[in-house]
Amino acid sequence: MTRIARRMADIQPFHVMEILKRAHALAAEGRDIIHLEVGEPDFPSPAPIVEAGRRFLTSGHVHYTPALGLTALREAIARFYHDRFGADVAPERIIVTPGASGALMLALGVLTDPGDEWLLPDPGYPSNRHLVRSFEGKPVALPVDATTRFQPTPAHVAAAWTPNTRGLMVASPANPTGTLLELDEIVALRDTVAARGGVLIVDEIYQGLNYGVEASTALSRADDVFVVNSFSKYFGMTGWRLGWMVVPEGYVRDIEKLAQHFFISPSTPAQHAALAAFEPGTLEILEARRHAFADRRNALLPALREIGFRFATEPQGAFYLYADISDIAASSEELAQRLIEEAGVATTPGVDFGDNAPERHLRIAYTTDEARLVEAAERIRRVL
Amino acid sequence: MTRIARRMADIQPFHVMEILKRAHALAAEGRDIIHLEVGEPDFPSPAPIVEAGRRFLTSGHVHYTPALGLTALREAIARFYHDRFGADVAPERIIVTPGASGALMLALGVLTDPGDEWLLPDPGYPSNRHLVRSFEGKPVALPVDATTRFQPTPAHVAAAWTPNTRGLMVASPANPTGTLLELDEIVALRDTVAARGGVLIVDEIYQGLNYGVEASTALSRADDVFVVNSFSKYFGMTGWRLGWMVVPEGYVRDIEKLAQHFFISPSTPAQHAALAAFEPGTLEILEARRHAFADRRNALLPALREIGFRFATEPQGAFYLYADISDIAASSEELAQRLIEEAGVATTPGVDFGDNAPERHLRIAYTTDEARLVEAAERIRRVL
Ligand SMILES: Cc1ncc(COP(=O)(O)O)c(C=O)c1O
Ligand SMILES: Cc1ncc(COP(=O)(O)O)c(C=O)c1O
Question: What PROSITE patterns does UniProt report for this protein, alphabetically (chains A, B) (predicted)?
């Protein structure tokens, strides 16, 4: 073997895959495993979306599309911003991508010079720091905790900013914590970043999965931010690999160039299926699912608290609970191991999400039905 | 707007998109346009593939797959190498990707340090040099011409090698020239590269589209090369966005890490559809198409020669003819413009493929049926 690029020494795998592997091994032995580690909805893609996909396939003509996506889909996304959020977004600013993953690659590829620093809240979505590193940027962790709902503040940003800082990435609702930023807070972060000549990337992939608060978009208050989104989570389309990004107009042409070479175009069947994502019938299904997620959350959260898991801030979005387990165990990795082995419950230890007290935190996803969640809590209680 | 990454100054768009736009505009005015610029089969995806995709969708359960792809698909690809080429490739070395594009990103991402040089034949597939640049590598053009069938030789490689050279990328059959490398030539290139501690990437995306010669794979003679492939071309699945790569075993784990963050996983419907790609019924359809491509080539090549297009080397693969137009016009860009405006025939000028005499070359794709090809040649004849 010849040498491997230096960046690979800094790029970590998804550690949860080890838990997943163990879960599969135990299941193969006949053990009943409850999956609370999975970061995707357990629901099938909504029937109208599936039907649109199947209908499109009938002709068999599955060719490349324009690199930025089908015009009809970009227009449908623009209408969705208007109808649901009252936000006016020109379709020309909407880039259809292979998932939010593809959007993040394009944003970072077009913005990041070697040595550029990106501020990333820690804990946060693991891929962000690895994508920054992939383009030779430098991920800089902003440690955040329950006192600011695990979200960065202008003070965090100001304190961490250096002449090399390129910008800030946030997510609302966030993974792994499920917490939101209010629009005023996003505007304040944008102002802080813009005053320093930087860029704010807002990952809204869990948009629509919010409980007790209204869904929102940064775009209703700012058009100089990069907004990342996806059909994966709220729309229940993970495996289709389709997302989008809204960017300031001046960046579109450069992103198009990069998209041509990175991806040629996003999946054609997925784009045609997604045309059905914004139909009233589909949105009705999705809202019913949102209520189911809320019910799950409302069942699981108190049950876990009773066992000794702590949530200093109540998550109001996504489908994750980020528990402080320091009253129960010294190490979240050991706890996760114990839970999978002794309770048959798979969870994600904090190590995947950064370096900020990962041993004290466990991510629990309510991507399985309520009865199973209740059983999982009961099994955990018995083990602990 | 804030600053854009420096790499963007070096990254060019697909210039042919301008021709395509003009073609659409003319068509909208009612003009009949013959498309000889398109780099994808005009055929629909084969019915068994489409049916497998539609069948899979029925349940609606379209979730993420493992980052390296479905085990069943990796095994099916391994069997295909064995059955068709007698090559033994362990499924564990096969990485399923979002198109050959995704495979090229992973290969270059895992191999390229900033400043690393990659040797790329010029003319060649445009994205290669831009992907190298995206990871802060340095694309180094190897000018090649008809005297070596537009393919690099060990002498080219040896002469261009520097202490910073990381490796060589070749394609067989190649885009835009349609020429092949023989297995002995690939082995000689591999030896030249390996002796210098470098890596050879062989892009076999047009494998199976060969006329008058047998299809082959570098894998039947070497297991220390990176072999890129795709369901896009021979298998007629461009819009599904699915490809694969075979890598030396020691690289698999690092590539898996990168794939998790770049893509999470390849398209799930595409993977299930592709499971039908190697069935005897599908291969029968594909072989019939190969014969149709051969007939097209055999009709178009002499017709173009008669008009004055020169082909010093006969292309034997892919679906491209790379014509020397210096007997007809001074500039391929002007000629392409004239052909679209006056003959209603869209072609791709050499500028997309590099800096090596692009003004003297035009790429003509026979991705349209024989009658239309004959008409295109006739229209061109009349104009010239
Ligand atoms: C915060 C966040 N951003 C982006 C992604 C990427 O998702 P996808 O590429 O499926 O849209 C994820 C997936 O879990 C995520 O949690
Ligand atoms: C030589 C070559 N490599 C790779 C690709 C990428 O194709 P895909 O990503 O559809 O597999 C192409 C597409 O035209 C090509 O010509």
Answer: AA_TRANSFER_CLASS_1
Q: Would an 8 Å CB–CB cutoff place A125 in contact with chain B?
A: no
- Predicted structure pTM score: 0.98
Does A114 touch chain B if contact means CB atoms closer than 8 Å? yes
Query: From the list B1, B127, B258, which residue is nearest A250 (CB)?
Result: B1
d(CA A264, CA A26): 40
Q: Are A7 and B108 spatial neighbours (Cβ–Cβ below 8 Å)?
A: no
Instruction: Tell me whether A302 touches chain B (CB under 8 Å).
Output: no
Location of structure tokens 């019924």: B281
Which structural domains are found in chain B, ordered by start? Answer: 6-45+282-383 (3.90.1150.10), 47-279 (3.40.640.10)
Which ligand lies nearest the alpha carbon of B207? Answer: 2
Nearest beta carbon to residue B258 from set A6, A11, A62: A11
- Partner B contacted by A9 (CB < 8 A): no
Report how far apart the first and last C-alpha atoms of chain B are (Å, whole number).
47
Confidence of residue A17 (pLDDT cuts 50, 70, 90): confident
Q: Taking CB atoms and a 6 Å cutoff, what residues make up the pocket around ligand 2?
A: A 264; B 39, 99-101, 125, 171, 175, 203, 205, 230, 232, 238, 243
> Residue B134's closest CA among B256, B8, B3, B15?
B8
Coil, helix or strand at residue B153: coil
A94-97 and A243-246: which strand pairing?
Answer: antiparallel
| A136 interaction partners in chain B (CB closer than 8 Å) | 114, 135-136
Terminal-to-terminal C-alpha distance of chain A: 47
- On whether any CB of chain B is under 8 Å from the CB of A11, the answer is yes
**Which helix or strand (DSSP H or E) is residue A334 part of?**
helix A332-338
Query: Would you state the pLDDT for residue B101?
Result: 98
Q: Report pLDDT digits (tens) over B150-168.
A: 999 999 999 999 999 999 9
The DSSP code for A117 is E
Q: How high is the pLDDT of residue B18?
A: 87
Taking the C-alpha atoms of residue B343 and residue B300, their distance in angstroms, rounded to an integer, is 16
Q: Please name the residue of chain A whose CA is at the shortest distance from the CA of residue B65.
A: A239
Mean pLDDT along residues A229-251: 98
Residue B1 has pLDDT above 80, yes or no: no
Atom of ligand 2 minimally distant from the CA of B124: 1
The closest of B128, B114, B191, B125 to B155, measured between CA atoms, is B191
Structure tokens at B265: 């996983």
Q: Which of B65, B66, B63 is nearest to B256 (CA)?
A: B66
d(CA B303, CA A237): 49
Residues of chain A with pLDDT > 70, as a percent, come to: 100
Upstream peptide bond of B123 is cis (omega within 30 degrees of 0): yes
Residue among B62, B250, B257 minimizing CB distance to A12: B257
Read off the pLDDT of each residue in B269-283 and give the average, rounded to a whole number.
Answer: 98
Please state, in angstroms and as integers, the Cα–Cα distance from residue B107 to each residue in A134, B128, B217, B251, following that order. 13, 11, 18, 9
SS3 B67: coil
Distance of residue B328 Cα from the nearest chain A Cα, in angstroms:
31
Ligand nearest to the CA of A205: 1
| In the predicted structure, residue B284 carries a pLDDT above the cut 80 | yes
Q: Take residue A342 and report the two structure tokens written for it.
A: 């002794």
CA distance A197 to chain B (A): 6
Backbone angles phi, psi at B213, to 5 degrees: -135, 160
User: For ligand 2, atom 7, which residue shows the shortest CA distance?
Assistant: B100
- B317 Cα to chain A: minimum distance (Å): 21
CA distances to A323, B19, B243 from A358, in Å: 11, 53, 36
In this complex, is the C-beta atom of B10 within 8 Å of any C-beta atom belonging to chain A? no
Report the alpha-carbon distance of residue A288 to residue B342 in Å, rounded. Answer: 57
Band (B110; pLDDT cuts 50, 70, 90) = very high
Separation of CA B37 and ligand 2 centre (Å): 14
